[in-house]
Amino acid sequence: MLLNLLLGLATTAVCLLLQSLLVVAALRYFVRREYRVYSTFLRAEGVVIGLMLILIFASLAQIAVWALLFYLLGEFETLEQAFYHSGVNFATLGYGDIVMSEKHRLLGPLEAINGVLMIGVSTGALSRALTEVVKGRVLPVRDEKPSER
């Protein structure tokens, strides 16, 4: 059990590093394109979609890290099975159609905790971008006089 806890915490630390790097990349992407938020709605949405894709890639990269751990531990015969199981854990779906052995089953809840925390970080970054879109698209309309609309 102690080994699983240490493996899970080490994997969570690697995932936090990945998440941090990709959130910084996502926010830099947003800041470099922030001027588009104040132009047309479609350009603003394009920036937010780009940011969202980077954040989704961050989650997929972390799912792959956990899947690789599961595969190396011999929990799954294929990397595809390990990736699927990891995705279910990370997203906290908990289907239960594929389960790990008793020897390593503690890693599943540890990955779920990791997923909840990292998806929360992604949500915060995406919320920041959407706030800017709302400020850029909605608030200027509110400041206009009715005759200017």
From TrEMBL:
Name listed for the protein in its UniProt record: Ion channel
Asked whether the UniProt record includes Transmembrane helix among its keywords, one would answer yes
* InterPro entries the record matches: K_chnl_dom
The regions listed as transmembrane in this protein's record are 49-73
> Is Membrane tagged as a keyword?
yes
Q: Which intervals hold domain Potassium channel?
A: 63-131
Keywords of the record, alphabetical order, are: Membrane, Transmembrane, Transmembrane helix
This protein's species is Microbulbifer taiwanensis
Tell me the Pfam families matching this sequence.
Answer: Ion_trans_2 (PF07885)
